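Ticket reopened. Same input as before:
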Amino acid sequence: MEAPYKILVLDDEADWLELCRDIFAQLPSKPEIRTCTSSPRALGMLDSESFRLLILDLKMPRMDGLQVLSVVRRRYPELRTVVLSGLEDEELRSRAYALGADLFWLKNDMQRDSKMFMDCLESLLGRDDDGGFRGIQSKGLMDIIQLEWLSRSSTVLRITRGPLVGRLWFQNGELFDAEAEGARGEVAFRRILAWKSGTFENLPPEPGRERTITKPINALLLESAQTMDENANPSSDTQLVDARHRNMVWKLSLLVREGAEFVIAVPPEGQGEPEALGIQSTDLAGWTRHATEIARRLGDKVEAGPLLHLSAHSLEKRLAVLSAGKKSFLIGWPLDVADQKLLEHSKRIVASWDS
Amino acid sequence: MGFLKNIKRVFRSRPAVQQLPAGSITVDRNGLVVTSTVSSAYPMALLGEIGREVLALFREARAAQTPLTEVSIHFGSFLVTARELRGGAVIFLVPQSATVPTANLKPL
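Engineering reply: fixed in the latest deploy. New output:
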């Protein structure tokens, strides 16, 4: 028999913890409820035992809930987290979500809508009354698409890669529309398939959506696989040089298309040389690395959530600094570029850089 | 009714979560906070840290032969915008909220 899930409830009020224990024991999946009144002790429990869900308050002495969230997000990325706060404060809600909380509920609302809250918890725990299996695995995108096709599902697959979001529409296993990077149909599908990594989620189906893809899914997958295979396996040194040249030309055309002046892609220190396009000197590579470190450090100190990006003005140009994976990117723009364009187009350049 | 008394008791006043600072500060070239419109409830030491990190950004850019006039740091729930001022800086601190439109600060 499968062991029940474990929930850890963290709050400095012992009476409240007793109440939570009584309420959460009524969850259909009958999880094991553990409680704790101190943040450091809770982190110790998370270290030594395997918990599925952490429910925590924000206002606690010495180490508040936001600090716990920022630690938990790094150390236990699989752990689901719910903030249960007595404070009705939109800024705190934003900060909690920015720090990776799955849900933010007010204690008053939990009392008033206890059934909805319990349904949310049950859903987070991964079991519900409808049956079926849920899990988290790392799979290639082709495998995920084939699974939807073979299981004849009707769904919208939302795929996220950094700032880029793509969608695939399935009806009875048949792919009938795709959207990504401003494109639709087969073009969008190929772009999504070229993404090397990301996350996905299933959304409710939209059967009424206009069909833009008529080719069978296995034909689309085969074409995409052939294209990726050709790009990944040049058969000779000459072809390898050609591939690099094509890659360089493609990146230059990306730069021109988006309107940027230059890009410097900076790997972490000691993991390779910076790659610069549109600029001779890589002096700014060091600044890019340090600026990202300084900004992250600042964010940790004030508990402001993850660093999204930096932007800067010099006398001659505008700069944007974004991170993707372990790399940092510095993108130079003309002085007159609009704020919205600076951010959106920088994100597009970064997301497309290694794809 | 005893159940309700329990609920009421657990909601009495609690230790505060550290809020994000809101307002502006001016720091001199040494990182000292010269003026501040941020609430005095926010620790001055943290404001000093913010000032020093921002000055480090400007200083490193100068060292890379690209002196900056303005820098903005965008976090999930916080925006820091700083304008270089003869070695020091004026720094604007703006918490971001899900229900308040994100501040779209234009260059000064």
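Confidence is low (pLDDT under 50) at residues 7-15, 100-108 of chain B. Residues 44-63 of chain B form the longest helix (20 residues). Please confirm and we'll close it.
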